[in-house]
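A quick aside before the break. I want you to see a complete sequence-to-structure record at least once, exactly as it would be stored in a machine-readable document. Don't worry about memorizing anything.
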Amino acid sequence: MNKKQGPLLSERFEVAYNQVHDALKDIVQINDERFVVLVKIGAKKYQIIETYKKDLEQYARLRNAIVHEKMEVGFYIAEPNAKVVSHIEKIANVFSRPNYALSIATKNVVYFDYHDSILKVTAAIKEHGYSKFPIYKNKKCIGLLTAGSIVKWMAQNMESGHVNLSDIHVWDIMNYQKELLIEIVPKEINIFEVENIFEKAHKKKRKLEGVIITQNGKNEEVPLGIVTAWDLIEIDYTVD
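That is the input. The structure line, written in tokens, reads:
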């Protein structure tokens, strides 16, 4: 290593590769620590790993060529180019320090009380364009009310093409709709952990409607954000 120039590109590549490998072991958690296996299995569970799957598979081949062809300690037979090194270092940073789930959540969450008029909810749908609203009863979150449930209720209670909502309350719709699965989590939770929650629900063949983020993950706390499956799909993990 030249002290003035800093580490060789090959050394930087190897350090970043090892950081990615360690992060993958922590994230995927299977009984196989091979890099390519972790990438393959992890890509099926996590959007972020799927995003970089092809790059990581190429980097695994490059790493094997560099390390296994190393002539002696500190001497590499080949050097990766600067763009490749910069890219894997950015991936290592993303994997090692994943963003909080709150960073992808819908914030300024609109929520209602169990006894509120349904007209307040329809006004919020019109104003904000939201389709899911946490509902509180006795200051505790008891579930979600969806725009779809309101529409279904209206269809069932329409007379001569009209429906009167003036005397309808949130509880009327909540009693009508089937219970919607939610999870309440603390604000420290990261994106990988939220993806795991959705994955576990999927494996149990249970549809998770949303993950509500509060200060400490308690249902009596106001929502700071809400994450849906669509939020996970639409994450932009691009590092360039």
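Two observations worth writing down. DSSP finds nine helices and six strands in the chain. The radius of gyration is 24 Å. We'll return to this after the break.
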